[in-house]
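Hi R.,

Here's the chain you asked about this morning:
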Amino acid sequence: MHIELIGCTSAGKTTLAQKIVDVGKRQGVDITLGDDFVLQKLHLNWIKSEFMRRRLLEICSACICLWHWQKYREFCRFVFGVIFQAPGSWFYKASLVRIVLRKVGIHEIIRRLGSESQMVLVDNEGIVQAAHSLFVHSNGRLNGDLSNFIKSAPLPDVVAFLWQPESILMERTLKRGHPRIQARSEHKVQGFIKQAAKTFEKLQKVPQVADRLFVINGENNTVTKPHSKSGPSLDRAYDLIGTVIKDIDLQSEPERTTPHAQADTPCLELINRLLDSLHAEGIRYCHWKSNINLKKILNGEEDLDLFVERGSVSRIPHVMAQLNFKVAKIKYGPEAQGVTHYYGLDSMTGKLVHVHLFTVLLTGESFVKSHYLPFEKMLLENCDRMGRLAVASKPSELVLFVLRTFIKYGSLPDILRLAGKSAEVRNELTCLLEGTDLAKALSLLRMYCPAVSESLFLSCINAIDENHAFLKKVFLAMRVRRRLRDYAKYTLVQRISAYTQVLLAKLRCILKGNVRNKTLPSGNAVIAFVGPDATGKSTLVAEASRWLGKAFAVRTVHAGKPPSSWLTSPINFILPLARKSAPRHRQKQVRSADPDASRSADKGFSPLYVVRAIALAWDRRQLLAKCRRAADNGEIVICDRYPSEHLGAMDSPRLCERTGSGIRATVHNRLVQFERRLYKSIPAPDITIRLNVSIETAKQRNAKRQKADKHSNDYLEVRHLERHKWDVAGTSSIHDIDTDLPLPDTILNVKKVIWKALS
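And the predicted structure, written out as C-alpha cells:
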C-alpha cells in the first residue's frame, strides 16, 4: 500500500513520517520509507552516504520515468508546461524538471514492486506533494490548474495531509528559511505560507484526492479519514497514524541542539574519566568544532574533537593507555600529520568513544584536510567551560566555522557534498550568532588572521544567513581561499595527488567489502564465536560486527556454512541432485551424522557423505586461511562458529576410520586422514568467545525459531553435552560467556571481553 504524506513547508512531515515508521515496526507492521524501499529494491540500500543515496535515487528513478514515458506522457507534458511558466531562472526550472522525473520514477517503482500487505510511506518524494513545488511561489500567484494536475497525476493509495496553523508554519519558516524565499523577511514568508495553505486547501477539494485523504490536524492531534472509501488496508493505515498522533505533539519543534550545552548535559562515564585525567595532568586542550552537537558528542554518538597544546602532547599516550584507549590508523590512503584517532570502550553502555586528537589545526576540505589555520593560541586562550569539558568560545568558533565552511565551498567534491545541506549550515551559523559578540569575533580575526578582511568575513556570514545563491558562495569561497593560500597544505599537483589517493583508498575498501578504513595496529584479530545451538551466536556475531564496524575494517564470515571454492563448486552443485536420485544414501547419511554413531569405528558412511565431508573441510580451510590473511592485513574478522579437532563435535571432522582390510577400507581411511589434516591445518583464532547456556533456555529459544531452523530436543541435548569440547591447538585466548543473562547484559559482556583482548 502506497501512502503519501503531504503538507506545507515546515509542517513537520519528515519527523512525522519517521515516527510512523518507527512505531509501525515496533508493532510488527511491514512499513518502510519510500527512499529506503526504492534503494532496497534496486539493491543499493547498502550505501550509507546520504549524498550518494540521493544521487543514485535521482538517477535510477529518472531512468525509470523515461523508460515508462508513454505511460506518464500526459502528466509530464502538463507539468512541464506549468514549470516553464513558473517564475525563476532556467536553472531553477531545470531543477523542478529533475524533481518531477524523480517523483514519477519513485511512484512507478513502488507501484510495480510494492504489495498490498506492505506499507510504503513517502513524504517529500510524493507526486501530490509536487503541487507545493509547482504552484507555490514567492510571487503569490497560482501558476496552473490544480484540478488538471490531479486528473493527469498518478496517485497513491492513501494521501495523508498534515495540517498546521499558519502561525506555526510562519514561526518555523522564519527560523529555517526556504530556498524559494531569498530574504527571510516576515512579509515574504507570510505571503509564501498563505499561498501554500491556499494550494493545499484547494487540493483537499479535488474529488480524486478527497476520496483517499486522511487529514491530520496538528492543532488538536486528530485524524479524520474519507467516508467514501473503506477497507482493511485503509483501516490499518488509519489505526497506525492515529496511534502515532496520540503519542507526539505535532506543534512542537524537534529538539534542536545548541552550540554550548548546559553543564548538566548527560556524559558517558568514559568521557568523564578522560576529562578528569586531562585536568589532573594539567593538559591544555579545547573542544574546537561542532559544539552545536555537544549533547550527542558527550553521549558518544559523534567524535570528540580535541585540540591539545603541543607542550602537553607527550603526556597524552599515558593518559589514553590508562583508560584503555587504542590508537587507530588509516589503512589505505594518506595519514594526516598532527591528527591521531583514539578509540575507547565505555563500560557502562558498550559504546565506542572516538577521540579525534589534533596537535595542529589541520582542517578545511572534508576529504583531504587542506589548510593549517593559525588559530591554536586563539582557541586555548578563548575557552568556555561546560561541565568538565573545555570548549571554544562562541566568537572563536564562529571565526573557524565561517573560514572552514568557505574553504569547503571552494572544493568541487565538497560543493557536491554541501549541495543539499544549506539549511544545516545556516542552522549552525544561527546558533553561533545567538548571544555572540560579533565585534569580538572580528577582533579575533584581525589579531590571528589579518589576511582575511572583515568585509569579506561579513559577506560570508550574510551569504549563509540569507541563503544566497550557491554560485555566489562559490565565488566568495574562491576569494577566501586566495587570502588563505599561505596556509594551504597542498599545491595544485599535490592536491590532485591527495584526492587520487583518497579515491583509490575508497575503491579498495569497496572491493574488499569494508565500509571503514581504520585498523588497530596491535589489535586486529580473528574472533570466533563458538557454542552449541540456541546460545545466541548469530545474534552476538551480528551485534559485534555492527559495533566494531562503525569504526574499523570488519569482515564477518560463517565458518559452519562456508562458500564453495572453485574446486568444490562442481561437487556442491552435483551432490544435492545425487542425493535426490539416491534417497537410501541420503537416509544413511542422516543416521551417520548422529553424534553417537559417528564415534563408532565400524559404522559405514555412504560415498556421497564422505565426498561432502571432504569438500566441506576443504571449503572451511580455504575460508579461514583467507580470514587469517585478512586479519594479518589489518582487518578484524568475526566468525560465526569455528571448527575444532574433536571428531563429531559441531563444525569438526565427521569421518571415522574403518576396521578391517581391503581396498575400500584403505581408500576410506586415507580420506579420513586427509579430512583430519585439513582441519589441523586451519589456523587458530586469536580470540574465542565460547558461549554457554542452560539446556532449558536453549530449548525455549529453539521453540521460537522458524520451522526450517528448528532442531529436535535430543539433538540440542547432545550438542549441549559437547559444549566444552571445543579446542584448537594454538588458541591462547578463550573466554566463556553465559548467555542465560538478558541480551543487553550478554552483549555488554561480549564487548568488554573483545575490547580487552584486542591489545
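Confidence is low (pLDDT under 50) at residues 585-603.

Let me know if you need anything else.
M.
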